[in-house]
Amino acid sequence: MSKNILLLNANPKAESLSRLLADQYQIEAREHFDVRRFDLPEMDFQPSLDSGYDAIQPLEPCLQDFQEQLKRADHIVIISPVWWGGLPAKFKGLIDRAILPGSAFRFEADHPAPVQLLRGKTARIILTMDAPPEMLREQAQPVLTQLDRFTLQFCGVTPAETTLFGSVIFSTEAERAGWVSTVKTLGAGGI
Predict the structure, then answer these.
(1) Could you read off the pLDDT of 62-99 as tens digits, one per residue?
(2) If you write DSSP's letter for every residue of 58-80 in order, what string do you get?
(3) Count of other CB atoms within 10 angstroms of residue 36
(4) Which of 45, 121, 148, 170, by CA, is between 20 and 30 Å from 154?
(5) What long-range pairs does 184-189 form, CB within 8 A, spacing at least 24?
(6) What whole-number percentage of the chain has pLDDT above 90?
(7) Secondary element (H or E) of residue 128
């Protein structure tokens, strides 16, 4: 059985380093694995969860597809920039709108711990940022806490492997080529 990989380019810009890295991951991974890819700039949805969980907000088709592929995936790969120490707003909107009770987790009776509906899945989070190399881990930590611990792990995904690239703004062509090579290796291994 082939591994099912959900690949998300979570940069809302149409052209970006995240897109390039997602392209390279997909090229390598599709040789051995079933890859379902989502590019945030091409997803048309209302990013605000206007009523929280108090009312059902119908999902746009791209969010329905994202939810289905999330359930189907064995491995989740997220490539995102870190902006102002956090996630891009549209990416946060994707999380708010698509990772919902009944789809990724659910609560039962009066028990405060969720039933995790994404158990058994693995993940890799690849983050790009403009921080200097010695500050990458520090700048990435709030995003990793939110995205890995309080989103993916909350829903049952095993703790994510992480890959950090930076400083993007001051990177050389050789450094960027090294990042692409690293992502190609990850894609070839489906990791």
Answers:
(1) 999 999 999 999 999 999 999 999 999 999 999 999 99
(2) PPPHHHHHHHHHHHH-SEEEEEE
(3) 17
(4) 45
(5) 184/24, 184/25, 184/27, 184/28, 185/28, 186/25, 186/28, 186/77, 186/124, 186/126, 187/24, 187/25, 187/26, 187/27, 187/28, 187/29, 188/28, 188/29, 188/31, 188/32
(6) 93
(7) strand 122-128
Contact between 10 and 87 under an 8 Å Cβ cutoff? The reply is yes
Q: For residue 163, how far is the Cα from the chain centroid?
A: 12
Token pair recorded at residue 91:
């990416």
First to last CA, the chain: 16
Residue 1 pLDDT greater than 70, yes or no: no
pLDDT category, 109, cuts 50, 70, 90? Answer: confident
Compute how many other C-beta atoms are within 10 angstroms of the C-beta atom of residue 120.
9
- The two most distant CA atoms of the chain are separated, in Å, by 55
Q: Is the pLDDT of residue 29 over 80?
A: yes
> Regarding beta strands 34-39 and 115-116, do their DSSP bridges make them parallel or antiparallel, or are they unpaired?
unpaired
* Boundaries of domain holding 150: 4-189
**CATH number of domain containing 19:** 3.40.50.360
What predicted TM-score, i.e. pTM, was given to this entire model?
A: 0.96
- Give residue-wise pLDDT tens across range 50-60: 998 898 899 99
Q: Count the domains in the chain.
A: 1
What is the residue whose two structure tokens read 């993916």? 152
Total length of the chain:
191
